[in-house]
Amino acid sequence: MADAIVSAILGQLSSIIGQQIQQEVKLVVGVDKEVEKLKSNLEAIKAVLVDAEERQVKEETIKLWLERLKHASYDIEDVLDEWNYATLKMQIEGVEYAVVPKKKVCFFFPSSCFSFKQVSLRQVVLRHDIAMKIKEVTENLDDIAKQKNTYKFNMIRSVEKSERVQSTSIVDVSEICGRVVDKNILVRKLCDSSEQHLPIISIVGMGGIGKTTLAQFAYNDNKVINSFDCRMWICVSEPFDEYRIAKAVIEALEDSASNLRELNSLLEHINRSIVGKKFLLILDDVWNEDYKKWEPLYHCLKNGLHGSKILITTRKESVARMMGSIDIINVKELPEEECWLLFRRLAFFGMSQEECQNFEEIGRQILSKCKGLPLAVKTIGSLLRFKKHREQWQNILDSELWKLEELENDIFRPLLLSYNDLPSMIKQCFIYCAVFPKDYEINKDYLIKLWMAHGYLKGYENNVMEIVGQEYFDYLASRSFFQEFIKDDDNNIIGCKMHDLVHDFAQFLSKNECMSIEVDGLKDPIINSSYHEQVCHLMVTIYREDSFPDSIFTLRRIRSFLYNFEDSSNQLAPNILPKLFGKLTCLKALTIGGTYRSVIEDIPKEIGKLIHLRYVNLRALSVRKLPEELCGLYNLQTLDISRCRKLEELPQGIGKLINLRHLENFGTTSLRYMPIGIQRLTNLRSLRWFVVSGGGGTDNKRCRLEGLKYLNLFGELCIKKLGNVSNVDEARRSELKNQKNLLHLSLDFEKDEGERMNEDDERTS
C-alpha cells in the first residue's frame, strides 16, 4: 500500500511543478532544493518498497518503519494539496494573485520584497506557510530515507501490472457451495415441527468454512419461505449489541425503523409485534458468550406462533450451548471432490480441455493447501484464473506465505497470496473497504466516487477515472474479494458485500487506518490513544440521539468522515457540524446526508475550510440553500444533494467548482433554476435534473436552456419545467442532439406556476 501512496505523491509533485512551468507562475519560491530532495528521497524509498512490504509480515521494525513512512506520506500529500489548492485559487480568482518574481523571497517581507499592489499580505503569509511546511516534511522524509539504509533492503523493481486492468467476466460463486447433505438436513430442521417452543438451531464451524453460505441457502429456499410468515436476517458480529439487534428485528418485522430509545421499550415492542406470527430469525456470526445479554431478547421472541425458529451461525460451540441450542450442525471441511469442482470452475475458467489436463496435477497440489475451506478455495481459484503459465502456478505452490505463522488466521494465507498479486493502486482500493461495517451492502457507485476522492483512480489513454473505478471493482470481484452481488433490472452489478473474514483481512492490512464505529452513548468507541494518529477513514453508525463522541474531533489525520445513514437509527445532530468542519480539516470525503429527510436545515459556512474535499454527500438534508463558501472547494469532484426537497437554489459561485464531475440533484423538487455558472463546469459528467428558469431573459443569474450546449453529460438527464421555454429557437440552441453520451433523457413540460402547457405551446417546443 505504501508503494501506491508514494507513487501518487510523486505524480502529484510532478503535476504541480509542471503546472507552474507551463503557466510561468511560481506561487511558492525558495523551496526548489527541498522539492528536489523530496523527489529524490521518494524515488529512493519507492525502489525498496516491494522488499519492505514483503518483510514487514515477519519483521516488526520494518512494519513500524512503513507506518512512519505512511504517516509522513500523508503529511506530504496534504502540503502538496494546499500548494495545488492555492494555485487553483490563483487561477480562478486571479485578480488578487499576481505572478511572483522568480527570485528568492524574503519571508520576513520588508517593503522591498513585494509590491503590495500585486500581492496581498494574506497571500504572503499563505506562501510562507506552505514553504515552511514543505521544508518540514522534507526534513522528516529525509530521516526516514536515512533509516531505510539500516534494513539493507533489496532494490526489487515493482512488477506493476500495466495501468490498464484486464477486463474480466465475473464468476458469481454465490450458488456454488456443495454440501447437499448439510443443505437438506438444515431445511428439514427448519421446516419440521418441534415440541420445543422457539427452538434454536446452530451452524458451528471455523471461519471460512461456509456457515453463512449454508444459512443463506436455507433462508432463500422456497420450502423455507413458504413455511414462515416472516423471515429476518441480522448480522451480529462483535460486540453483541442488544439495542441494535432489537432495532433490526423491529425494522424487519414492520419494514420501518423504530424511534424508541430504551432497550426495554424495544423489547416490549417486539413482544407485541411478534404475536400471531410464525417467524424465522437468523443471527449470523454470533460471538457473545454472556447469557445475560441474550436472555431478554430470547424471552421477548417467545410470543411468536408455535413453529417459529431461530438459526445462528457461530465459530464457537460454547456460544451455541450458552444460547440454549440443542440442535447443532457442525460444518466440516468441504469434501475433496466438492473442493475440486469449485476450484476447477474458477482456476480453469476459459481453458481448453487439454490445458485443464496439463494443470490438474499441480492444481490438486495447490488445492491441498486450502484445507477444505471454501473461502480459501475461491480465493486461490480466482487468483489462478489469471495465471496461464505453469511457472506462475509453481510459484504459488512454493510460496513461503503458506508457512507463515505470524498470521492470526489460517485463511489469511491464501488471501495474502491473492492480495500480493494485486496492482498497488487496487491494493489501496481493497483496504479502503475496511471502512464499512461487516455485512454492509456496499453501493458500487458510492465506493467508486470515494476511491476517486482519495486519488486511487488515475485515468489512462482515453479512459477517465470513473471507468478505471469500474475496472478496479470488477477486478476485486473477479478475485473473490467481493460477494453477494446486488444487480439492477438489466443484470448490472450495482452493489456487493464482503465476506466477514475478507473484511477481517482488510482490517488486518489497514492497521486501524480504516475504521467503522458504532455510537450508542454508553462508551467512547475511540478509546485507544494510538487511533488518534492512525485513523484516516471513519464510518460512524449512530444508535442514540445526542451521543456523538468528542474523541472523533481528535482524529487529526482523518480523510473520510462517512455517516452510515443506512444502519443508523438516529441522525447527526446539526450542532456538531461547525466543530466537525473546524477540526477535521484534512477531509477529502464527507457524508452527512441520508436516505430520509434530515433535521439538518443549514450547512455551516465553516465547510469552506475543508479545502481538500473531493466528495460531499448532503443527500436528503432539509436545507433551503447552500452557503457560498461551498464554492471555494475548488477540488470538489462530487456534490450529492439528491432528495434535498426543500432546496430552492444553488450557490451563485458554483461556476468556480471547475473540477466538479458529478452534481447528483435528483429529487430536488423545490429547485427554481440553475445558476449561470453551471455552464462553466466543463468537467461535469452527470447532472440529474436541469431546471429551466421562468421570468424571461433579463436575469443574468440564471442559466438558460441553451447553457446545456457547453456541457458533455453522461448517463441520465431530466430537463424540468420546459414550459418556461419561450420559443423554439432557445430549445434549438441547447444543441441536445450533440449530447452523444446520454443514455436516458426525460422531458418535463410544467411551468413555474405548476400548470401544464397548452397544446399549441407544447407543439412549438
Unreliable spans: 95-119, 159-164, 754-765
What is the number of strand segments?
19
> What's the tally of helices?
25
> Considering DSSP H and I runs of 4 or more, what fraction of the residues is helical?
25-40%
- Beta-strand percent range: 5-15%
The whole-angstrom Rg is 29 Å
Q: State the strand order across the main sheet.
A: 9-10-11-12-13-14-15-16
SS-derived structural category: alpha/beta
Largest sheet: 8 strands, parallel
Mean pLDDT: 85
**Structural shape:** globular
Q: How far apart, in Å, are the first and last alpha carbons?
A: 55 Å
Can you offer a commentary on this structure?
This protein is of the alpha/beta class. 39% of the residues lie in helices and 12% in strands. It is built from 25 helices and 19 strands. The longest helix has 33 residues, at 60-92. It starts with a helix and ends with a helix.
